[in-house]
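Final report, section 2: Outcomes. Of the targets proposed, Aldehyde dehydrogenase is the one most frequently requested by collaborating groups, and we therefore present its record in full.
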Amino acid sequence: QDSTETKVIDQIHAFQTGITQPIEWRIAQLNRLIDLLNEQEDAIVDALQQDLRKPKFETLMTEVIVAKNEATYAINNVHAWSKPTYPSKTFPQLMDTVYIQKQPLGVVLLIGAWNYPIQLLFNQLVAVIVSGNCGIIKPSELSPVTADLIAKLIPQYLDKECFKVYLGGIPETTLLLQQKFDKIIYTGSSMVGKIIMKAAAEHLTPVLLELGGKSPVYVHKDSNLDLGITVAKRVAWGKYMNLGQTCTAPDYVLCHGHVLEEFLNKLKSTIKEMYGEDPQKSPDLARIVNARNFQRIEKLILGMSKEKLVVGGDMNEKTRYIAPTVYKDVHIGDPIMDSEIFGPILPVLAVNGEDEAIEIINGSDKPLAFYIFAKSDKVVQKLLSNTSSGGATVNDVLMHAAAYNLPFGGVGNSGMGAYHGKYSFDALTHERSISYRGQNLESLVAARYPPYTEKNLSM
Ligand code: NAD
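The predicted structure is given below as tokens.
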């Protein structure tokens, strides 16, 4: 415990030297992060193969390239973001200079997730660097090869005094949480999010919580399933990427009865088209991260009636393979609708329109994402106005979360705070109000001093 404490104090000292203040230093560190992603691409692909059997294409598209884009966007904008801003003045401020100083918070603790262990941690590291903070980085122990790689590479590329990686699981994280940080960013389950927030409260440390939830899809009756956009393909892509272990993955589908049969048929043919006759042989499907998660998902499949199975259902505990699976005739109250699936099972519920979909969505916790497939803008606007979620994408999936010009975060049970792009800078920056006046013009304020009189108040 002592050594952990000493190390965090090291980062506090590094921050207090002012080393992170110059914008050029931040840009240099961000460039080093890009160097790491370029030079170590093969090692990253290999680590994610070992941890999740993540296909190389997915590692490059959803981890490496996303993090590089985030870093590049931060480099291009850090000068503008870090400039003080000058609000319009009120009457008593006419003789003053009033502005908002953009000040880093200090030392930020990052507690990482295992499902996108490079993208999520590196995007958050970009946030720490661009805003001029120091960072303590705790990768997830559930993707251990990637965690070891991060621990090896970060000191090779980034300033050793300002950024430190700690490895470990619950006991080590619990120890770290006893320290005082200036902000904690946590990515993971809502249940652990509560533990993090309680620990942070001891030090009045603010938290940014990136959590999960059951993200719904609504397919309206006017959706053209055949021509134009391929609804089933888009849903399947977002669902089965990383074998369903994506925080913003479609969790379940609310499908209008008029297009239900066609949607289910299309899902079936799409899965075959994407992953072949036997998806177990496809190189494009990841694996479930560990035995505990495998057993959790297995239990959900075993709890479902075979008559409701549209496609999939195969499992292999040894290789932690679970087939892309779809169930029909699912109802609210079925165990599969109790909590986030976080695996490759897609329950489809029939609804009679957007009103029923709204009722179902509002009947449970606010999700991280919401996906709407509809041609009618009136229907889209009604769904957006009457529901709440961290973010939403219309006529596609995941896209709002992949954009660095949009805030990424949850609401209610799916999280608090947001990051990406400018929102990352703001999340780790203190906006310090400055009212700056000269040492003259005493007569202008003389009326405020005691002894008070009614006459003074009217001035
Ligand atoms: P988790 O919440 O169990 O664990 C994540 C991290 O928390 C690990 O680093 C672990 O060491 C630490 N941890 C676990 N238990 C702890 C404890 N008792 N005390 C202190 N630290 C502890 O992760 P999980 O449940 O496997 O993650 C899946 C969830 O994360 C899903 O709900 C998913 O939607 C969500 N998620 C959200 C995002 C997002 O960006 N919003 C991204 C990825 C995953």
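The domain at 13-211+418-430 is CATH 3.40.605.10 (Aldehyde Dehydrogenase; Chain A, domain 1).
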